[in-house]
Design goal:
It contains 29 helices and 3 strands. The chain is mainly α and 659 residues long. The chain has one domain (2-349, 422-646): Up-down Bundle (Sodium/glucose cotransporter), CATH 1.20.1730.
């Protein structure tokens, strides 16, 4: 059985180009077919069902075909994933609903200040390539806690790493399942609570049977869907508005038109100075300190997230691990380089097609989003034309047209609704929804696998039952995967605002808990076991303490350091809590598309927003590791030789494969 499975895998690996070329062609043909059906009068809801269920079915088929009973295949895809395809899988794993749906929405809301997230997340892969990724592959582990346990001598370090992993990943995966619920509820007409579990079914079929092997090949397919879906509407709009089908080249023209339209709206009374936030003016939301703190934390956090690092355990060699990072950066760059253009085109379409429109001529698509509570006009959900007219008539002196200060759009709706705002065919909206679903599912797969693998491999197998046979190990892994997935889906179904806000904290938690130990463990042989344990506890503990105090006890945290709520020096307006901004800008909460942000300032000590808590925790972790290492016995010569071996580009894998 194993021999037949290996033979089939080899045939598949040898024909990857052909397989995914056929898949891409089939997907494009499917989109064209739905476009024809739309022209023939097939209802939009039917088209939405076809888009969602076709893509879920394809992912499920890949998951079933990739099922495995081998430990190395389940945990690290047999370490046979070529660099190019691992780069695509990593891109899909990384570009979650936050990136696909939320990135352009964040830029739409924050303008220039939103670039901090793009710069930080993209730059993080440079750190992965230089400091961490290839060396973990040379080590030969299944999980990040595996490395911690071997390098720092025992299960105490392993357990701390597992705690960090779960804390980083659970809220993140909850948000992805939340995103699938939003998309499915909009395009399938389901209740949100039911739609969450529909998305969960697609996630489980992909990951439960085949583990990392199934997730890898599914994520490659999902990347193709999401990048096609993301680029299609802005390529069309770029061609339509400026005659050039490369939106990155026409982005500057769109910014000029936005500036001109902003001035026009001010002059005609369609916007007030308070409601209008200039798109290209910097530091309206973040101070320079927090702007660059976010960039740094997102970079280092990206290089510390376990579900990203485990992707580099799957390549055949260290060299391909390094190449894989480069491919990852390219595939992620394709979307991130397009996100500012997407935000600009979206804002221009809103300013042109919605602001200034007569209340009696609103198109029906707006009411569909209004029924979900994601678009408001004149302070009320835009559920119908009558409700909209009644709400605006209640405002004294209202001119009868939609003004900027009247219009509130949830920023997660920006990407999904842009095709409808621009009057594009509904099939483009369905395509974008399929892309958003692919982004959410791909990241959820990776995160669930990271959590389940840590619990099954590091806790159950390494700590509780080291003699467990392969069949039992895989059974435990699958059971834990289902349990974690159901817990995350249930949590998402309750629409928990706090957990969604904490998604942005995952980067600082990973940065404070993992990064010092990973870097010191690889690059300084003198780092000792007590030092690593003390540093991880100190850095991670301080980060958690800072987050909890500044989030839930802001007065205690601020007064203890004699700080008060800060204001923007340029405008005098309250600064925004960045963690809450990310929650609202990216995870379905009602934030005005423009104008004064209603959120209260929750800056923490030293004027540092709590999303950048890693800047406090990480230096403490490094400092504690260095100091304690000076007063404790150096690692054995054998361990130091292992560290030397990890840093060599060639040679044997340090931790030999076990099945």
């Amino acid at each position: 059985m194993a021999t037949q499975q290996t033979s089939g895998s080899s045939d598949f690996l040898n024909n990857l180009g052909r397989v995914y070329a056929i898949y891409t062609g089939g997907f494009l043909a499917f989109v064209i077919l739905l476009a024809i059906l739309e022209q023939l009068g097939v209802p939009n809801r039917i088209l939405g069902y076809l888009f969602v269920f076709f893509t879920l079915a394809v992912y499920a088929i890949i998951g079933i075909l990739s099922r495995t009973a081998q430990v190395s295949e389940y945990y690290v895809a047999g370490r046979r994933v070529p660099a190019l395809y691992n780069g695509m899988a990593t891109g899909a794993d990384w570009m979650s609903a936050a990136s696909f749906v939320g990135m352009a929405g964040t830029l739409f809301l924050l303008g220039y200040d939103g670039l901090a997230w793009v710069l930080g997340w993209t730059g993080g892969y440079v750190l992965v390539s230089i400091l961490v990724g290839p060396y973990l592959r040379k080590f030969g582990a299944y999980t990040v806690p595996d490395f911690m346990a071997f390098r720092f001598g025992g299960n105490f370090a392993r357990m701390i790493a597992v705690v960090v992993l779960v804390c980083c990943s659970f809220t993140y995966v909850t948000a992805q399942i939340f995103g699938t619920g939003i998309i499915a509820s909009r395009f399938l007409g389901m209740q949100f609570e039911i739609a969450v579990f529909v998305g969960l079914a697609g996630i489980l079929v992909c990951s439960m049977l085949g583990g990392m092997r199934a997730v890898t090949w599914t994520q490659v397919a999902q990347y193709i869907v999401l990048i096609v879906a993301y680029l299609t509407p802005i390529v069309i709009l770029s061609t339509k508005n400026y005659g050039i089908p490369i939106p990155q080249l026409t982005y500057g023209h769109a910014l000029q038109d936005i500036i001109a339209r902003e001035q026009q709206m001010l002059q005609t009374g369609l916007a007030t100075v308070a409601a209008l936030k200039p798109h290209i003016q910097p530091f309206l939301t973040y101070t320079p300190l927090n702007f660059f703190a976010i960039i740094f934390c997102m970079m280092v956090g990206t290089a510390s997230l376990p579900h990203i690092l485990m992707r580099y355990f799957t390549t055949p060699s260290v060299r391909e691990a390094r190449q894989s990072v480069a491919w990852s950066l390219l595939f992620i760059f394709l979307l991130y380089f397009s996100a500012p253009a997407y935000a600009a085109f979206s804002k221009l379409e809103v300013y042109t097609n919605i602001i200034g429109r007569d209340l009696g001529s609103i198109r029906p698509w707006l009411f569909t989003w209004g029924e979900l509570g994601l678009i408001q006009v004149c302070g009320k959900n835009a559920v119908s034309a009558d409700a909209l007219l009644a709400a605006c008539k209640a405002i004294a002196g209202h001119p009868g047209v939609i003004r900027l200060q009247d219009f509130v759009i949830n920023t997660d709706v920006i990407v999904l609704s842009t095709p409808e705002i621009a009057g594009l065919p509904y099939v483009i909206s369905g395509l974008v929804a399929a892309g958003g679903l692919a982004a959410a599912l791909s990241t959820a797969d990776g995160l669930l696998l990271a959590i389940a693998n840590a619990l099954s491999h590091d806790v159950y197998y390494k700590m509780l039952d080291p003699n467990a046979p392969t069949v039992r190990r895989l059974l435990v892994a699958r059971i834990l995967l289902v349990i974690v997935a159901l817990a995350a889906a249930y949590t998402a179904s309750t629409r928990p605002a706090d957990i969604l806000a904490m998604v942005g904290w995952a980067f600082s938690l990973a940065m404070a808990g993992n990064f010092p130990a990973l870097v010191m463990g690889i690059w300084w042989k003198r780092t000792t076991t007590p030092a690593a344990i003390a540093g991880m506890l100190a850095g991670f503990g301080m980060c958690v303490f800072y987050l909890v105090v500044t989030r839930y006890f802001p007065q205690a945290g601020v007064s203890s350091f004699g700080m008060s709520s800060l204001t923007n020096p340029a405008t005098g307006a309250p600064l925004v809590d960045v963690a809450q901004v990310m929650a609202d800008a990216k995870w379905i909460a009602d934030v005005p598309a423009s104008g004064a942000n209603p959120l209260q300032s929750k800056v923490g000590w030293f004027g540092l927003t709590n999303i950048a808590a890693g800047l406090i925790g990480m230096p403490i972790g490094f400092a504690v590791m260095w100091i304690v290492s000076q007063f404790t016995a150096a690692p054995s010569k054998e361990m130091q030789a292992y560290i030397d071996e990890i840093r060599k580009p060639r040679g044997r894998t340090v931790l030999e494969e076990k099945t």
